[in-house]
Amino acid sequence: MRLVITSDCHGMLDRVQLPAGDMLIIAGDVFRNHSGKADIDASFQLNDLASFDEYCAELPFKKILLIAGNHDWVFQIYKPAHTSLKHIIYLEDSGVEIAGIKFYGSPHQPWFFDWAFNEPRGGAALRHYWSLIPDDTDVLITHGPPLGILDQPFGRGEHAGCELLLKRVEEVNPRVHCFGHIHGSYGKRQIGGTLFLNASLCNEAYQPVNAPHVVDL
Predict the structure, then answer these.
(1) Cα within 13 Å of Cα(22), Cβ side
(2) What is d(CA 5, CA 166) in angstroms, rounded to the nearest whole number?
(3) What does the alpha-carbon distance between residue 208 and residue 110 come to, in Å, rounded to a whole number?
(4) Rg of the Cα trace of the chain?
(5) What is the pTM of this model?
(6) DSSP annotation string for 125-137
(7) Which residues lie closer than 8 Å to 51 by C-beta, 6 or more apart?
């Protein structure tokens, strides 16, 4: 199975030439923000859902998996919104098995400004959410990175990843762990049996310049 993996599109996925593959994975921040206010942005994004779903229906992939990111207020404020998606499999602390490969997705991250799906760093909520990741997960999709792995804004300086997520990933040892959130650390890294992918489409200037990753499983 060929996976095409991207993240942090911020409303600009249609500006990118997507590689051919069997499945498209979008690791959050798929929608634009219009105002900087959660309720207003959620309303705009709710209106964008149907058109994005129809856009995805025209893409040449057998399956499309999506998780929310910290900019995707619609999925936090309008909890049932994802049920309207007809051509996309939405994962939120949930998983799906496709062709014998087990995928699991979660949108949470340590507190990052005042965006969606924030939880206190090192707290019980993140510990709980990461405990839900099944031990037999093949492909883990989170919005934020684990601590110390492709998690530095502008590719340098302070690490923004989650230490509790890192611990759980080391326990689960998935074949692939893909994420975004920290635009400046786009790239890939193989550590042991896990291929880590920061798949941010946009750079720190919110320009859609990074190619989607392609992975064959």
Answers:
(1) 9
(2) 20
(3) 25
(4) 16
(5) 0.97
(6) HHHHHHHTS-TT-
(7) none
